[in-house]
Amino acid sequence: MEEKERPVRTEKEAKRSCLILTGMSGAGKTVALKILEDFGFNCIDNLPVALLDKFLELVMENGREEQIALGIDSRNIQDLDGLEEHLSRWEEKISFQIVFLDAKDEVLIQRFKETRRSHPLSKEGRVETGIISERKKLAFLRKKADIIIDTSKLLTKELRSQLFSIFLKKKKYKNLQLSIVSFGFKYGIPEDLDLLFDVRFLPNPYYEKDLKSHTGTEEIVQRFVYQDGNAEIFLHKLKALLDFLIPLYISEGKNQLVIGIACTGGKHRSVTIAEKLYQSIKDMENIGVRLDHRDINK
To answer: The RapZ C-terminal domain covers which part of the protein (predicted)?
Structure first.
């Protein structure tokens, strides 16, 4: 997820604003428009680009302060090449905010298979072909986007919550959503990890009778894991590594990062380090952080 720096606007300018909701087919644009409609936006889906100038003239003439959301996607494929020119003509009079919904290719393919729909750019061919073509056509919109939301793993309620935070609670949107996942090797490695750290070198509370039934969320276990000083050193070096990597990931356009912290069973050591890592980075600028202890109850 990603947001560019937004310029400060005067109250008068804010009354002449327009949200453009766009993105990949299958990424959830229709659902997002319905959510924005629930939030009080006046939503227009699939407005032909050829009618955009006339529509924006009406926006300027309308004296009411209202929230407008335009849905633009590859159904306007023939006119998309001219969209950037249309927007440029109006940028001095209307402040545009572009939200781009995206998802991993394999997720989009699966969604099309589940709904048994054809891709709008490959009605007679393979879904993969349509996705490749659509990415090329929408590349300029993704580049211009103020906010990019990856819906690959989002439930509808989670998308709603994110849109609520952005547009109703006016929270600053984070450039990168980072997930810290603790787990046990004995239960398998999560498929979506970007980085994996093995903490089986740390003291193991599992073999302590009084600690076995406790978890790494409890101070008594954390003290045991930290007893020889290596956990503190490891966490310090891990935090330094992330301080180095995160700005680079953001500059490359990455909007999700999943970090796995693993031990044997996923209940003590990995949970301890994941908890400590979360506390050390949860307030970092430009990132949102989530914590998940996958195997803590197994």
So the answer is: 177-296
Q: Are 49 and 86 contacting, i.e. CB atoms less than 8 angstroms apart? A: yes
Give residue limits of the domains in the chain.
2-167, 177-293
295 annotated ligand binder:
no
284 has binding-site annotation: no
Backbone angles phi, psi at 43, to 5 degrees: -100, 135
CA neighbours within 13 Å on the CB side: how many for 223? 6
Question: DSSP labels for 261-274?
Answer: EEESSSSSHHHHHH
Q: Is 182 one of the annotated binding-site residues?
A: no
Is 24 annotated in a binding site? The answer is: yes
Binding residue per annotation — 74? yes
Q: State how beta strands 95-102 and 147-150 pair.
A: parallel
Per-residue pLDDT tens digits for 157-189: 888 888 888 887 665 556 678 899 999 999 999
Check the annotation: does 76 bind a ligand. Answer: yes
In terms of residues, how long is the chain? 298
Full-model pTM: 0.60
Q: Rounded to whole angstroms, how far apart are CA atoms 212 and 267? A: 9
29 is in an annotated binding site: yes
- The separation between the first and the last C-alpha atoms of the chain, rounded to the nearest angstrom, is 31
- Sequential DSSP letters for 2-43: EEPPPPP--HHHHTSEEEEEEE-TTSSHHHHHHHHHHTT-EE
pLDDT of 280 reads 93
- Residue 38, token pair as written in the block: 């629930």
Q: Which fold has domain 2-167?
A: Rossmann fold (3.40.50)
pLDDT tens digits, 252-292: 767 788 999 999 999 999 999 999 999 999 888 778 888 99
Run of H or E residues at 134 = helix 127-144
DSSP-based three-state secondary structure for 280: helix
Residue 28 annotated as lining a ligand binding site: yes
